[in-house]
Amino acid sequence: MLFKKDLSLLVLILVVGTIVAIINPRFLSLINIANTANLIGLFGMFSIGMAFVIITGGIELSVGSMFALLGVIFIDLLVNHGMSWPLAMLLMILAGTALGWLHGYLVTDMRLQPFVVTLCGLLIYRGIARYYTNDGTAGFEFGMNFPALEWLTTGRAFGVVPHSFIVFILLAVIMGIVLHKSVFGRYLFAVGKNEEAARYSGIRTHRIIIAAYVISGALCGLSAIYLAMYTRSISPASHGSFYELYAIAAAVLGGCSLRGGEGSILGVVLGAILLQVLQNLVNLLGIPSSLNFAVIGGVILIGVLADQQIVRRREQLKLAKT
Amino acid sequence: MALLELSNISKHFGAIHAVNDVSLSLQAGEVTGLMGDNGAGKSTLVKMIAGNFRPSHGTMRMAGAELILHRPVDARRHGIEIVHQDLALCDNLTAAANVFLGRELRIGFGPFGILDYAAMYKRAGQIFAELKSETRPRDLVKQMSGGQRQAVAIARTMLSQARIVLMDEPTAAISVRQVAEVLNLIRHLRDQGLAVILISHRMPDVFSVADRVIVMRRGRKVADKRIAESSPEEVTGLITGAIEQA
Does the ipTM exceed 0.85? Predict the structure, then answer.
């Protein structure tokens, strides 16, 4: 059942891709595919983290604001404090992890609703980011170069395959094994579906839930760095705005139920790919970019509806046979 | 020596005395029916034995040694297994996954262990066959009937060498044919030398499978007799209060 959903998502991607390629063959040009792959990598990285949180039945709305906050701090550390970039990178990932732990703690031990906790995070982190830069833009000074860091984050293997995409696929493989093959992954699904039953079975449910938020936070920290190096300048009032919706959309398209207990990494990967292909579609088909979100939302809605109808039809056929 | 001995066990939730000064002892190879009206304290008593609650007063002894349980997992380690009233299953997982929940079989060691799906499916299949249940290990629990879900919950108790099995209303929501299956399972467990506590509202079930019956009313034990020495009428009277004690 799980793979059938992923299969229908793959079919949708191929259909959309084919339509775009026919209308505008530039879609298939190497440079376009490479650019799209870069965006898939950038947005996909934190979508994986979001999937873990959604599977526990929670939600993480502060992702975009974390990009703003961690991004401005990262650039500030590099530019104004001359910190070595590996150290700054490590600090940002640790900061993301710490924030994730805080969210998890508030949700489990303080028994707050994930929506509320992360909504406050969304507001607070962006506010702090704006205060940090006095509402100004954080950026690299003219001529400032970090060759190794840039190679890592914005480089392309063989001049074509973006490193962000490679990192994304690597993360997807590792997290896929964690989610679907490890004991922790199974506990995540159990806790997301029936926390009481999981607790009765001896599972330490609070630890599992906190771990999900910590994973999301760490991946956010990593993504913040990649996004900062991609845009090279961050306006904290708007950087990363609404990015959490991309992550949630990718996760939901990929089969994560917002009620918890369901999802797959392959689905999230395909969801992230579909979203960027749709974005690319808007650009290449000459659709006004103002309709960007409308097109994405429309295709997602049609896709989810179609999927549901197909499932219903299949169940009716199954009932008819028995 | 009694397998499990409860002495003056009480549980208070603030002003509510859910269980009041209950003493009982369980022997191996014996099925004890635990009956009483709603709110009598049966589930609370059994949850204390299973480690979900700590008694407010009193002591528990298992095979002579004092038994202190902080969490359900401690009870499991002592060989005490429970089938909850709501079965405590995760609908989104397979039957095998639910059976092994919290006790997964792994390949590899330490934090790098991965799930041994094949071994778990195989073992779960063996247990279901032993229970003469039609449940298939790879099926998702949410697609199962009540009797099959019951089999999954009962199969959980057969994973490790259990010594005591507690069953809270195992026949409450299943069909007539499946009730017979569950009662057979209980006899099977008894024949293996386990002590079984069966909480049930259904008089015919208790009288068909139990060796002893304990009746609770308003948190207190009002009767502890061999089934052969009692009758459904007497037990009904004890439950409702028509008969004070027996």
Answer: no
